[in-house]
Design goal:
The complex is a heterodimer of chains A (176) and B (184). Chain A has 176 residues and is α/β, with parallel strands linked by helices. Chain A is built from four helices and ten strands; from the N terminus they run ααββββββββαβαβ. The longest helix of chain A is centred in the last third of the chain and has 21 residues. Chain A is extended. The chains are: A alpha/beta (176), B alpha/beta (184).
């Protein structure tokens, strides 16, 4: 009825956008609050659930190593897949492990190659820039699924150690 | 009557351009928003090579504090003199030593919450009282210990939230963590 009247008057029906404006303003404030310029982003997925910790230190940029339930990824490049096998110690349960043909004792060959390449690149950059700030310090950011057994983590750390990464930074969710 | 009211009212503000701006800003901010805060735990590889020769004999023997994490609980190693002033508990031959901090359920820990983290923090506080300058702790986890248990152990040994330290922060215990390879 009102519409008819308005059309008859010659002007289009006016939308009341004040309430929408109110809503938008609230959303805007909320989003500005959660705006962040952190270097590192985590893509949450079913296979990568980070643990929660009380630590307060902020992450810095470094070589990024992701160990999820399914695979190992270095700086976005998948390096190898993990397998799920029957656990000999706990019959009936599965455990995640690095496939035996992929590793040499503790050493994961494919990961060593990839990390050594990264270390060499980082060293080159450090040399060419000549500044202390960009020098290779052997820092490695590790994102690790919280259900992963220590055995896999130890093999990963050992391999990283062989590739001259010695400073491990475990990425965790900050407790609110 | 209606005419009179219109002349009194302020003219309507044109909100459409602001709406346009806000609508563009929102998708951009959603992309940049981070809904989880990240943090890092520092850890280093154990030093490889011969230990540094020490020039002078330290007054106190160095504390080699280690935490062995198994599915039966956490065992504090290297500080027997503080934890057991009357002598270490007797363990018969061939039997594993019971953990210093057993699981709350008594037997095998099934989840992270099963470990007695508060008790661990208290025990480490006692050791810190004796060795105020010591800041290192070595973790020796069992092979199938889950990563989240490891992180929780590091949390419990880092600081004691129940006791205030300097500048209102919780009292620092052993913030420098070294993860040992474990025996294999």
């Amino acid at each position: 009825m009102a519409l008819k009247k308005a059309r008859r008057a010659g002007s289009g029906a006016e939308l009341n956008i004040t309430s929408m404006m109110d809503m938008m303003t609230i959303i805007l404030v909320f989003l500005l609050k959660s705006y962040s310029t952190q270097d590192i982003s985590v893509a949450p997925s079913e296979d990568l659930e980070l643990p929660v910790s009380t630590v307060k230190k902020n992450p810095q940029m470094a070589v990024n190593l992701i160990v999820s339930k399914k695979n190992i990824v270095v700086d976005g490049v998948p390096v190898l897949s993990l397998e799920k096998v029957d656990d000999e110690d706990n019959p009936g349960q599965k455990k995640i492990q690095v496939p035996e043909d992929q590793r040499n004792g503790q050493l994961i060959d494919a990961l060593l190659d990839e990390l050594s390449k990264k270390a060499d690149t980082a060293k080159n950059i450090g040399q060419q820039s000549g500044s202390e700030e960009h020098a290779f310090k052997g820092r490695l950011l590790i994102q690790c699924d919280k259900k992963l057994p220590f055995e896999v983590l130890r093999q990963v750390m050992y391999t990283a150690g062989q590739a001259q990464f010695s400073e491990f930074k475990f990425i965790v969710y900050k407790m609110e | 009557m209606a005419v009179k009211r219109r002349s009194m009212e302020a003219p309507d503000l044109n909100l459409v351009p602001i709406m346009n701006l806000v609508t563009i800003l929102i998708p951009f901010l959603i992309m940049a928003a981070q809904f989880v805060q990240l943090a890092v735990i520092d850890s280093t590889l154990p030093a490889i090579g011969a230990p540094q020769p020490q020039d002078e004999e330290p007054e106190k023997p160095p504390l080699n504090l280690s935490l062995a994490i198994t599915d039966r609980g956490v065992t504090v190693l290297g500080a027997d003199a503080i934890l057991h002033p009357e002598g270490a508990p007797e363990v018969s031959e061939g039997e594993a030593r019971p953990p210093t901090i057993p699981c709350t359920s008594g037997g095998v820990c099934t989840s992270v919450e099963d470990y007695d983290w508060n008790k661990l923090t208290v025990k480490l506080g006692l050791i810190k009282d004796e060795y105020p300058d010591e800041e290192n702790v070595i973790l020796v986890p069992d092979n199938h210990i889950k990563y989240e248990v490891l992180v929780k152990t590091m949390d419990s040994s880092r600081d004691d939230p129940s006791k205030p330290g300097a500048e209102g922060d919780p009292r620092l215990l052993f913030p420098f963590v070294v993860i040992a390879g474990g025996a294999k």
